[in-house]
């Protein structure tokens, strides 16, 4: 009696197809999964198998197969039907596993579930001869994988040695194809690169006093990728960003023995700035990021209690119908403890103090002339300094050559390690000196840029404070005042200690002061009269202005 169609399907073996490519890119561009499935289905039809499911993967075949989502799903499918035996079809033995240990482990996992592997390109045989051939083929796949891995690492190491970054593009960079570079190179990814640059320079210059402040700044940046849905960042994200030498235009790969060297990409900061960042990191622990520092209370931490001298805190207090903002001292034992000061009263008083710092207008033209004299004097000294830097660079290069010779002749591993540590320090010093030889002489037009930026700040610090961001307000506070402002609940602010440039250019000082312009100044150490040059008069002012430029240049461009 002829079998019905349903009886024929019952007698046919059930099959499962497993397909794998090594990366998502191959899955999208290569069409490998579709071609593998097509060949496996043809093989199943030729054997009379009924294909019940297809499990794809787009991860590497090396290592533990339990790290492949598709294989885990396949084994779970077999576990869900323990009374049914399946044929698991692989396109090729290399799609099965490319590791000797895990090849046989996967074979056992399938056998325990009553499944048998088959492939159109390999005959699985449980005889001693068949297992021998299978072991040879598995070992060959393992060898090819290890050889390929070695070649890839060698090529990557060689590329790093030639100054190219080969790892994932750091935040603020992207990869682009470049002719003559032998592959892709890093280029700044704007506007994200500008945000990263500002964070790095701010921490190096002291604009951001801690990593917590860098974290708050980056959390406020629109384009910087965040770690959490609420826009927050992990502290470790900031630490890693500050430590990356790639932002200084350099590359390194310590795990491959490649020390720091100049890269073939554009740096967001100088190497000297990167070294200052590392010194700042080594100088203190990372404080926790406080969420209560916000734009509602910009003077928090900068206004101090005139009784105990400690910084005031601030908070919103709930009234009958609305919330009210207050500053208050919370120091235990202080007579002013918990006595609230309305925010408007304290901040309006600060506005009056900051407005008094506007220098006298008649001194600005004189200041420009004095700056030009000081600049010319600095140029002469800089030319001599450039020669000294070049001599230091040659001395460092000789030390490096000497250490390399000693490493070759050394027989003790401890001695070699000590030489390598010293060599790494000298390599970093060499990069700094090479950078100095190129940047120590100011570019043409640098004076005008410095004057413009400094005068923008000195002419009206209140305008910058009023229109600036929270971070910019903190910069103004640090640059305009030497120390926190003492505040009395009844009498208001005491005498502020303002920074040196404001004193010298006629800012509020409580005294009637004028700068000596012409004539002779009799020095106490000499009976003879002496004419003071404008360069000598301006040196303290010049140092203060250069500190202002270094601290707030990224922020003043918008004013």
Protein architecture, described:
The protein is α/β, with parallel strands linked by helices. It folds into three domains: 138 residues, 3-Layer(aba) Sandwich (Rossmann fold); 111 residues, Alpha-Beta Complex (Hect, E3 ligase catalytic domain fold); 204 residues, no CATH class. Helices cover 51% and strands 13% of the residues. The protein is built from 19 helices and 16 strands. Strands 2-1-3-4 form a four-stranded parallel β-sheet, with helices on both faces. It has a three-stranded mixed β-sheet with strand order 9-13-14, covered by helices on one side. Strands 10-11-12 form a three-stranded antiparallel β-sheet. It starts with a helix and ends with a helix. The N terminus and C terminus are likely disordered.
Which short descriptors sum up this protein?
3-stranded mixed sheet; 4-stranded parallel sheet; 559 residues; 3 domains; 13% strand; Rossmann fold; disordered C terminus; Hect, E3 ligase catalytic domain fold; alpha/beta; disordered N terminus; single chain
In short:
By secondary structure, the chain is α/β, with parallel strands linked by helices.
What is the element layout, followed by pairings?
Blueprint (H helix, E strand, L loop, with lengths): L4 H7 L2 E7 L3 H7 L1 H16 L2 E8 L11 H12 L5 E5 L2 H4 L3 H13 L3 E3 L9 H34 L11 E6 L4 E6 L3 H14 L5 H9 L15 H9 L6 E4 L4 E5 L8 H13 L19 E3 L7 E6 L4 E6 L12 E2 H13 L6 H48 L3 H27 L6 H14 L1 H7 L2 H11 L4 E4 L3 E2 L6 H5 L16 E2 L6 E2 L3 H23 L3
Parallel strand pairs: 1-2, 1-3, 3-4, 9-13
Antiparallel strand pairs: 5-6, 7-8, 10-11, 11-12, 13-14, 15-16
Helix pairs in contact: 8-9, 8-11, 8-19, 13-14, 13-19, 15-19, 16-17, 17-19
């Amino acid at each position: 009696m002829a079998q019905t169609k349903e009886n024929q399907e019952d007698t046919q073996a059930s099959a499962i197809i497993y397909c794998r490519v090594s990366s998502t890119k191959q899955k999208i561009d290569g069409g490998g999964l579709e071609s593998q499935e097509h060949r496996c289905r043809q093989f199943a039809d030729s054997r009379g198998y009924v294909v019940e499911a297809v499990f794809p993967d787009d991860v590497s075949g090396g290592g533990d197969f339990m790290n492949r989502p598709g294989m885990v799903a396949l084994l779970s499918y077999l576990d869900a039907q323990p009374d049914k035996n399946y044929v698991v079809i692989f396109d090729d033995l290399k799609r099965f596993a490319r590791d000797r240990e895990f090849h046989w482990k996967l074979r056992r996992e399938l056998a325990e579930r009553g499944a048998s592997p088959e492939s159109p390109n390999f005959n699985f045989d449980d005889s001693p001869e068949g297992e021998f051939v299978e072991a040879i083929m598995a070992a060959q796949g393992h060898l090819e994988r290890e050889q390929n891995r070695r070649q890839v690492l060698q090529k990557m190491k060689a590329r790093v040695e030639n100054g190219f970054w080969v790892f994932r593009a750091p935040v603020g960079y992207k990869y682009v194809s470049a002719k003559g570079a032998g592959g892709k190179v890093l280029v700044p990814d704007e506007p994200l690169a500008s945000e990263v640059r500002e964070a790095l320079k701010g921490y190096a210059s002291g604009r951001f006093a801690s990593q917590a402040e860098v974290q708050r700044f980056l959390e406020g940046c629109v384009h910087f990728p965040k770690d959490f849905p609420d826009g927050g960042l992990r502290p470790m994200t900031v630490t890693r960003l500050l430590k990356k030498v790639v932002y200084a235009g350099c590359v390194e790969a310590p795990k491959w023995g490649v020390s720091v060297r100049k890269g073939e990409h554009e740096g967001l900061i100088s190497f000297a700035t990167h070294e200052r960042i590392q010194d700042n990191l080594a100088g203190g622990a990372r404080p926790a990021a406080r969420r209560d520092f916000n734009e509602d209370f910009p003077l928090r931490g900068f206004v101090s209690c005139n009784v105990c001298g400690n910084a005031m805190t601030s908070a919103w207090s709930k009234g009958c119908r609305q919330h009210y903002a207050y500053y208050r001292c919370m120091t235990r034992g202080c007579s002013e403890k918990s006595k609230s000061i309305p925010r408007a009263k304290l901040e309006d008083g600060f506005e009056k103090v900051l407005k008094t710092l506007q220098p006298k207008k008649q001194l600005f033209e004189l200041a420009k002339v004095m700056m030009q004299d000081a600049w010319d004097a600095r140029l002469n000294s800089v030319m001599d300094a450039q020669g000294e830097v070049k001599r230091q660079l040659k001395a460092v290069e000789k030390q490096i050559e000497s250490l390399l010779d000693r490493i070759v002749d050394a027989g003790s591993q401890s001695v070699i390690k000590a030489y390598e540590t010293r060599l790494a320090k000298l390599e970093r010093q060499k990069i700094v000196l090479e950078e100095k030889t190129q940047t120590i002489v100011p570019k043409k037009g640098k004076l005008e840029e410095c004057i413009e930026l400094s005068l923008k700040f000195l002419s009206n610090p209140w305008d910058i404070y009023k229109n600036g961001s929270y971070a910019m307000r903190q910069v103004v506070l640090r640059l305009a005042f030497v120390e926190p402002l003492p505040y009395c609940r009844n009498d208001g602010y005491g005498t502020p200690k303002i920074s040196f440039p404001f004193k010298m250019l006629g800012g509020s000082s409580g005294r009637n002061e004028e700068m000596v312009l012409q004539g002779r100044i009799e020095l106490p150490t000499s009976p003879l009269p002496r004419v003071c040059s404008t360069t000598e008069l301006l040196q303290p002012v010049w140092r203060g202005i250069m500190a202002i430029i270094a601290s707030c240049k990224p922020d003043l461009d918008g004013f």
